[in-house]
């Protein structure tokens, strides 16, 4: 009989498969997508958030555990399991050597990469290169990989995994790792979670999906409904950012994100500002803007900058709408010109210019205006002007399976001894809400390795599961 079955094909699944194979287990990996689209959302990633106490290869200065923890605590508002979060943080400090062993290369961050050289290690070639490296390593080690193999159900008895069902077969294994992603591509589930708003809109109908179309949440729903697995997380919470409204419905990836929000103002389709664009550094706060957009009429807004901002942010794939005057820009964006000019005029008049410095929380701010802009507030007065249409872009959802530091799935408060979970399917244990750049890959890498190592141990001797978790971390 097969030792370990891994369901999923992204970073967490691959880490699990590799660690299980390294531990001597026979391993099969089932990827729902065709080979050309393998890797789930991991193919769109760029970096990994890493704890380090001193400069390390591509990382500068230091990013100690307590600072990492404070950053995570700030974006989650305390909605996180500290024990599991610190496990992820500590694991992030030592995983790069293992990753390199499996063919992953790192590079210093590119110019304009959001000031994260101290906190994040960037993959050479991005997430697609990382995924390809892991697949090559898995094939070399003898992991059996099957594409076009979505799993629609599991056989679980008394908390123990027995088999998985694809369209054509029943696959037995001594242990299993669930790493099949969230439900962000399931429009009906998103509609169910978000419901109608006070304007009678279905906000989820206007969400774009930054990543794979294959994350339908089939296994999550099956685990919730059929097996009553213990859940965690709010179904409306997700890694959701502001992306270009012209992006494709699926797989737009990193290049569709709009990074100039903090350098100008954001107005909704009624031409009103609605949030502090200068609240904090973009890497720490960019993930709040998707949810902010979800609350606006039509789930639409516009990022407005002038020529002073050009060159200060990572340019997106689509050029902004350009105009020589602000009224002309309003017309191009189909906004009410009078309201737009009143909004921009009030903002410009409220700006108190100090020493502008986009690399720190500077003293350029507004006064006597709501909402305020607390940093980087410069008047928009230098043509040409640019406008980027925005919509919410969902990367992955946070509702998932409750777990512990062994990565075990729980049923009625009892941990399974041979069914484990990693990646997006359990990220809500660490991310109750919010996001900070690179943390998703940190969670997937840490728990993928723990789940794979423990699954291999469980396949041979369930009593080894607890000891293996500490070795994996």
TrEMBL record:
<dbReference type="InterPro" id="IPR003953">
    <property type="entry name" value="FAD-dep_OxRdtase_2_FAD-bd"/>
</dbReference>
<dbReference type="InterPro" id="IPR050315">
    <property type="entry name" value="FAD-oxidoreductase_2"/>
</dbReference>
<dbReference type="InterPro" id="IPR012831">
    <property type="entry name" value="CobZ"/>
</dbReference>
<dbReference type="InterPro" id="IPR036188">
    <property type="entry name" value="FAD/NAD-bd_sf"/>
</dbReference>
<dbReference type="GO" id="GO:0016491">
    <property type="term" value="F:oxidoreductase activity"/>
</dbReference>
<keyword id="KW-0560">Oxidoreductase</keyword>
<keyword id="KW-0274">FAD</keyword>
<feature type="domain" description="FAD-dependent oxidoreductase 2 FAD-binding">
    <location>
        <begin position="3"/>
        <end position="432"/>
    </location>
</feature>
<keyword id="KW-0285">Flavoprotein</keyword>
<protein>
    <submittedName>
        <fullName>FAD-dependent tricarballylate dehydrogenase TcuA</fullName>
    </submittedName>
</protein>
<dbReference type="InterPro" id="IPR027477">
    <property type="entry name" value="Succ_DH/fumarate_Rdtase_cat_sf"/>
</dbReference>
<dbReference type="Pfam" id="PF00890">
    <property type="entry name" value="FAD_binding_2"/>
</dbReference>
């Amino acid at each position: 009989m097969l030792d370990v079955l891994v369901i999923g094909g992204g970073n967490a699944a691959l880490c699990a498969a590799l660690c299980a194979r390294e531990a001597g287990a026979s391993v099969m990996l089932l990827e729902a997508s065709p080979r050309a689209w393998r890797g789930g959302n991991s193919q769109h990633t760029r970096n990994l958030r890493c704890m380090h106490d001193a400069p390390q290869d591509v990382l500068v200065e230091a990013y100690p555990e307590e600072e990492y923890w404070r950053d995570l605590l700030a974006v989650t508002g305390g909605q996180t399991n500290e024990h599991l979060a610190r496990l992820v943080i500590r694991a992030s400090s030592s995983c790069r050597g293992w990753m390199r062993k499996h063919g992953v290369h790192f590079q210093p961050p590119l110019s304009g990469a959001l000031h994260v050289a101290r906190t994040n290690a960037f993959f050479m070639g991005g997430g697609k290169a990382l995924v390809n490296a892991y697949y090559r390593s898995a094939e070399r080690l003898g992991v059996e990989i099957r594409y076009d193999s979505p799993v629609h159900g599991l056989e679980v008895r008394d908390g123990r995994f027995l088999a998985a069902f694809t369209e054509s077969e029943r696959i037995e294994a001594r242990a299993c790792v669930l790493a099949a992603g969230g439900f962000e591509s399931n429009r009906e589930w998103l509609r169910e979670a978000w419901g109608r708003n006070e304007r009678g809109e279905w906000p989820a109908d206007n969400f774009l999906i930054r990543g794979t179309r294959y994350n339908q949440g089939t296994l999550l729903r099956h685990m919730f409904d059929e097996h009553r697995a213990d859940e965690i997380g709010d179904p409306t919470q997700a890694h959701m950012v502001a992306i270009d409204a012209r992006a494709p419905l699926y797989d737009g990836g990193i290049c569709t994100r709009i990074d100039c929000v903090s350098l100008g103002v954001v107005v909704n389709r009624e031409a009103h500002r609605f949030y502090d664009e200068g609240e904090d550094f973009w890497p720490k706060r960019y993930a709040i803007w998707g949810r902010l957009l979800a609350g606006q009429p039509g789930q639409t807004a516009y990022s407005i900058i002038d020529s002073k901002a050009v060159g200060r942010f990572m340019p997106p794939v689509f050029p902004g709408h350009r105009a020589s005057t602000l009224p002309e820009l309003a017309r191009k964006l189909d906004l009410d010109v009078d309201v737009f000019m009143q909004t921009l005029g009030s903002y410009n008049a409220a700006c108190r210019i100090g020493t502008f410095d986009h690399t720190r929380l500077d003293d350029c701010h507004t006064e006597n205006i709501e909402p305020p802009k607390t940093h980087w507030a410069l008047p928009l007065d230098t043509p040409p002007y640019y406008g980027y249409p925005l919509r919410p872009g969902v990367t992955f959802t946070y509702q998932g399976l409750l777990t512990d530091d062994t990565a075990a799935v729980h049923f009625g408060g009892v941990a399974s001894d041979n069914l484990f979970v990693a990646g997006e399917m359990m990220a809500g244990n660490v991310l109750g809400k919010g996001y900070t750049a690179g943390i998703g890959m940190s969670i997937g890498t840490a728990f993928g390795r723990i789940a794979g190592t423990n699954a291999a141990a469980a396949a041979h001797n369930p009593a080894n599961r607890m000891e293996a978790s500490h070795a994996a971390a």
